[in-house]
Design brief:
Layout lengths: L2 E5 L1 H10 L6 H10 L4 E4 L10 H7 L7 E5 L3 H10 L3 E4 L19 H13 L3 E6 L3 H8 L5 E5 L1 H6 L4 H17 L3 E5 L7 H7 L5 E4 L1 H10 L1 H12 L3
Parallel strand pairs: 1-2, 1-8, 2-3, 3-4, 4-5, 5-6, 6-7, 7-8
Helix pairs in contact: 6-8, 10-11
């Protein structure tokens, strides 16, 4: 079964909007796991507008499933993750002021940089994943960096899904197949939700993990966090 990793950035956004510690980010992570999530994802950014570096340090001893830290591999980010030692680091090419991730890596132009970063992370026993689009050349470029996994950037799929689900998923299936041929494990994330997740999973059944934050936390406002996590898990079950 594909694992569900809940991105709790939006919990931190809500907390930071008012100050204090409500909602409690650490408690939210523990609750997500108790409600069935198989991983916790955070994406600390340099301005700490949602998840803070200190949150990451506090979360590490609490997360009992899988801890995935996303981010651009700046010097401060690398110091953080090497010190914390999460199960997985997902490398994203976001510039410092980015509102959200909006593209995958150009793994050809950035090969040397990514290979160096991945080598360092592996020395610390951390599994690596690179955020990429569906260009097969860039999938092949990712494989040459030494990464363990790639995470497919699924916003284009989500955008096209309402009009033509089959056309929307087709390039992702090809990219997933190529990644598999190259020995890469596969994650996916960005704008996956209760409407489009099952279709994606059915066509890429060997998908290892999806990381979902904004949609899941938004749904939880209506359905409750426990119920929402179960709803997402049902979309991922092999049926």
């Amino acid at each position: 079964m594909t694992r569900l990793s809940v991105n709790i950035n939006k919990i931190a956004t809500l907390r930071n909007a008012r100050g204090g510690n409500v909602p409690d980010v650490q408690k939210a992570a523990v609750d997500c796991e108790q409600f069935g999530a198989q991983g916790i994802t955070v994406h600390p950014r340099p301005d700490e507008r949602h998840i803070r570096y200190e949150d990451v340090r506090l979360l590490k001893p609490l997360v009992t499933t899988e801890f995935n830290i996303e981010g651009y591999p700046s010097e401060s980010f690398m110091e953080l993750v090497n010190g914390v030692g999460p199960h997985q680091v997902t490398l994203v090419p976001d510039p410092p002021g980015a509102l959200t991730s909006s593209a995958g890596w150009d793994t050809l132009k950035n090969h040397d940089f990514l290979a160096e970063v991945i080598t360092e992370l592996k020395k610390h026993g951390i599994r690596t994943s690179i955020f990429v689009g569906t260009d097969l050349n860039l999938i092949e470029g990712a494989a040459k960096t030494g990464t363990d996994r790639v995470e497919l950037y699924t916003e284009p799929y989500a955008s096209q899904f309402p009009q033509d689900p089959e056309k929307a998923v087709a390039p992702f299936v090809k990219a997933a197949e190529r990644a598999r041929e190259l020995g890469l494990e596969l994650n996916a994330g960005h704008d996956l939700d209760l409407h489009n997740l099952r279709w994606f999973k059915q066509r890429i059944p060997w998908l290892k993990e999806v990381s979902i934050g904004h949609a899941l936390i938004s749904d939880a406002l209506y359905y409750g966090l426990q119920n929402t996590i179960q709803m997402y898990l049902r979309q991922l079950r092999d049926e």
